[in-house]
Amino acid sequence: MQFGRSYEEFEVGATYKHWPGKTVTEYDDHLFCLLTMNHHPLHLDQHYAQSSTQFAKNVVVGNYVYSLLLGMSVPDVSGRAIANLEVESLRHVAPTFHGDTIYGETTVLDKWESRSKDDRGVVQVETTGYNQDGTVVCTFRRKVMVPKDSYLDSRGGDQPGRPTPQPRSE
């Protein structure tokens, strides 16, 4: 299984469909809210959401949806990244609710070689997240610095640092 890509493997216009999706539970949302100290009742208080909001139910906190999609994209996009350089834009297009399943895909918008180091390049991508009905819920664009094949070769190949299994001596 591939984990990330080298600069040479990215093609402008290519789209990577991330698999599997993730069904967002109430527990996921509440834990993320508590870990990040976002105690807004829209996310945590069912009675408040039901009686005081336009959706009449809890909305999953947007940064969890973004984080989930970013994580989904790692095996296809940034698993070999040297650095995540920039998040250019982030849009929450529609709400996500407890029980929704989120899917994601990323399209390569552009790529260019590093001006300062010849063993790496920068890839610009856009990730789109959508729910089980196909409704787009989140989009974001980012730039990732990725290694060229020469960088990987000089550091031990695709899985640097991976030990070789040694048989047990008896």
Short description:
With 170 residues, this protein is an alpha+beta fold.
Taken from the alpha-carbon principal axes, the silhouette is: globular
Structural class: alpha+beta
Rg over CA atoms, rounded to whole Å, is 20 Å
Q: What would you say the CATH architecture is?
A: Roll
Number of helices: 5
The portion of residues assigned to helices is: 25-40%
Indicate the proportion of strand residues: 25-35%
pLDDT below 50 for ≥5 consecutive residues: which ranges?
none
Biggest sheet details: 5 strands, antiparallel
CATH homologous superfamily annotation: Hotdog Thioesterase
Order of helices and strands: EHHHHEEEEH
| N- to C-terminal distance | 33 Å
Mean of the pLDDT scores?
Answer: 94
CATH class: Alpha Beta
* Tally of structural domains: 1
**Spatial arrangement of strands, main beta sheet:** 1-3-4-5-2
According to CATH, the fold-level topology is: Thiol Ester Dehydrase, Chain A
Number of strands: 5
